Write the structure tokens for this entry.
Amino acid sequence: MARVMPGLMAWALITGVVMAKSGLPEWVATSMALCVFAASAQLSAVPLLMADAPLWVIWLTAACVNLRFVIFSAQMRRHLVGLPMGWRLLAGYLTADVTYVMSVQRHGEAPVATPDQPEPLAYFMGAAAVNWTGWCAAALAGVWGAAWIPTRWGLAFAGTLALLALLVNLSKDRQTFGSAVVAGAAATALFDLPFKLYIVAAVLVGVATGLGWDAWSHARDEGDL
């Protein structure tokens, strides 16, 4: 986690600053920093809160922004499904883009986690604990120190760079790279969708591209094409 935490903590810091400077009471911003644990949902909900939007609109917006985690959890299910419900809910809360990517990169195709083979689960929980602690500490620093941290520093871009570094590291073959390019193009083309649904659309397009490419490769190798 050491290679990505500086960028993610910079992102968390600016998220805390934005919440504090939006006009939210400090206790509300502090509660969101500790409980929501999703920068995109927080930054989407803040302007709606300040505009006195209906609660269902705020919930729907946050849910749409976070729909990508449905896909993440489906891929991580093999290593978490054996846990009791309480632990699965905790794992769902702790799952983030970075912990998902790193867990899949290291243990995505490993045997299912069991009491006799806890490595995939232990790796995920270790990464998630570091990620949550660092994120919350930086977000709280942003909330409490907003008066001394100007938003023009552009610290959020550091978080984007951290995720980009992971993406490049994962793109080890043409199929992965091609799927990422298609997903990026879809996100750009669909950027004007409401509730930031372009994120969800890009994930679905990227997954569909990867699955389609994989099916085509298998058919070609077996001589069906």
Q: What stands out?
A: The chain has a mean pLDDT of 82. The CA atoms of residues 19 and 28 lie 9 Å apart.
